[in-house]
Write a sequence for this structure.
């Protein structure tokens, strides 16, 4: 597991040998988490989009680098 970015209420994590499709995990301080698909930004998990707004904006801004990291870790 690699923490890519920290925020006040969450952090963005990528697991090195995770399953497809390309995605990151967003872990909230209260223990809940979700995944965000890097292709379409679909959120899976019991987390509302408003709760991860800051993390989601960062993911969208850094999408190309995140996809590159995903491919590099899968090789």
């Amino acid at each position: 597991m690699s923490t890519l970015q920290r925020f006040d209420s969450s952090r963005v994590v990528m697991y090195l040998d995770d399953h497809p499709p390309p995605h990151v995990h967003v872990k909230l301080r209260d223990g809940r988490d979700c995944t965000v698909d890097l292709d379409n930004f679909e959120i899976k998990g019991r987390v509302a989009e408003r709760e991860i707004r800051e993390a989601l904006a960062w993911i969208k801004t850094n999408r190309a680098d995140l996809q590159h990291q995903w491919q590099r870790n899968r090789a």
